[in-house]
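residues and backbone:
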Amino acid sequence: MERLDLKYGLNPNQTGAYIYRKGGLPIKVINGRPGYINLLDALNAWQLVRELKASTGLEASASFKHVSPAGAALSIPLTEDERKMYFAPGSLSPLATAYVRARGADRMSSFGDFIALSDICDESTASVIAKEVSDGIIAPGYSEEALDMLCRKKKGQYTVMEIDPCYEGDVEEIRTVFGITFSEPHNTYVPSDVDFSNIVTKNRELPESAILDLKVALITLKYTQSNSVCFARHGQTIGVGAGQQSRIHCTRLAAGKADMWHLRQSEQVLSLPFLKGLSRNDRDNIIEQYLSEDAEIDVIGNWKEYFTHRPEAFTVAERKAYLSSISGVSLASDAFFPFPDNIERAVRSGTSYIAEPGGSTRDGLVIECADKNNIVMYFTSSRLFHH
């Protein structure tokens, strides 16, 4: 039995935490000392990116916080507006592009993230990570240049872990809660092209780009604390609503994040006159304030600290008009939608394609609402709860 002692458990007062596995651990700590939550994030995130790579053939990355993904993405090239929105450098490897997308999906939530990469970390990806506030990373390997860069992060305390890419977890998953042991089979569901044939709406036109986005959303939900829903666009998540007790609150939370993702690409935001020298984190926080509900009343009171000149307000009416032009967004839910209100909220965030398990007594009402809004919806018949 191989054992790895951890920094501490869920909280610093829970000392003496460790992980172990009969037959040896598939992970190796190269640098730093991970904690309990770091390992939960790392192992969930690794499974997510591994399945994304297997399902799509594209390099993948995930940005995790508190055992749910803040963002997950594939290595699809950035549009020029996305590049500006993410403050991304001009030259990026495919894997670095995947991480820029994953981190940029919800930069507020990704602050202090744990990163997973589907492929060997290259220098381009490490150079992006080196500039971000992050707790650690897990990958199947590292180039010499990337490893040197990452091991110098956080004054040499950055957690760097390597995982055996051939490792397959046990079929039986076991955990102990309050002295009682639980056992269940591992959830092996992965969306296949066959799943997308069970379309239940009148509109049946499901383009390849939407199928790719729905795969991203569904696989992301497998490793998101339930209840959860996920909006996706351009091969990445753009809004994850995790851990809510009601489905509509998941949808509202995720939709609000998706709206923010779209608004950040508006000319009004991309042209904000930032002062030189502001960090990306400062600019992200300022944009969040600029797009807040009360920004129309007071466009960032201390604007001289951030801008060369006071920017014009982005009014509520202007934001609604901008978002009304959005379409082509994909949405997946880890369980059925019990009421049409979820569809109605999703429509306001440009949703055109929906994947959900089905099985509600109100499926007919939900389908009717989707038809009314010309949405393509299919039932997966597979619930994806994760706790």
Q: What stands out?
A: The radius of gyration is 21 Å. Residues 173-263+323-379 form a domain with the Cytidine Deaminase; domain 2 fold (CATH 3.40.140.20).
